[in-house]
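Q:
Just now I want nothing more than another pair of eyes on a protein record. Here is the record:
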Amino acid sequence: MSRATILVVEDDPNLLEGIRTILELDGYETITAENGQQALELLHYNGSHPDLIISDIMMPNMDGIELLKAVRKEPRWLMIPFIYLTAKGDKTDMQRGKRLGVDDYLIKPFEAEDLLIAVESRLRRHEALNAIHEQRVANLKRNILTILNHEFRTPLTFIVAYADMLTNHNANELSDQDLLAFLKGVKSGATRLRYLIENFILLVELETGDAARTFEWRRMPIYDAGELLAEAANRALMSIETERFFTLNISPNLPLFVADREYLIIALTQLVVNAFKFSPPDSPVILGANADRDEIHLWVQDFGLGIPEHELEAIWQLFYQVHREHDQDQGAGSGLAIVHGITRLHGGRISVQSEVNYGSIFTISLPVG
């Protein structure tokens, strides 16, 4: 099996040649460049990227700091381990590199063994992280395929069955009431199907890091927590297609906080939908917001079934379902996993207080300031 390919960037020809010789004697493939600009050109025009980059910091044309910035901006190269070569005691460069996400340092002068140990440890770490990521993605795919095989059948059956009824009957023979019932059946199946698809797309975005990138450019100051909660409740009412009611309990003078408005509304909507599902039709659902010195708390309270204490730790797991025996049509078990992922994306925490037959309070706590 071929060994890893390493890009070495160094403006001192003797040191460059020495590093290449050490690496190739140990079985590595090497690519060399004399400055950051050359290294970028090699990265752009080579068919495949290297497995690791070793770069000096002080170089002409483009130094190692600018090279690292350029590498980390390109999604294809984002995960390549990066090792800096730096002069002894140059703490300023080391601090700049750490802020940019450099993986390791080799302080000049160094022994051949130091170089090989640094390279091997970074490559092993990279392989381990890749293996973990690939396993997570594989598990996610398997779980999604399993649940889709079951969950998609119900809404598709609704849509196909009611569509067949419509096409197999003469429109003139159907009463307005029958026609409306058939169309409602099609709409109900389509709504649930759309809900499932949207949830699974968001789960994949959360697992792969796409949601984190979206959060970085979409986050903004939030001045009105009550408006967020009201929007979430209204979306929940639209999705369940039954008549329910809610009340708002918003503390005055709440501090502003930074959030992705859309993601946060999605998380709150999931909590409100669950509150509606697992509480009696005539029971109120309360949405509230309050704050202390460091956090703002957005909460949803119901007076329904509650959650057994032994299940409280497991409810955040993907596809875990509470009260499956109570509601065979409760969904795919992805809602609380989405809430947990979105809360974590915001640097916050999610908590729950629950008592069987008395209801639950779910609270999203986010940092303020």
Remarks:
- The mean pLDDT is 85.
- The chain has eleven helices and twelve strands.
- Residues 5-128 form a domain with the Rossmann fold fold (CATH 3.40.50.2300).
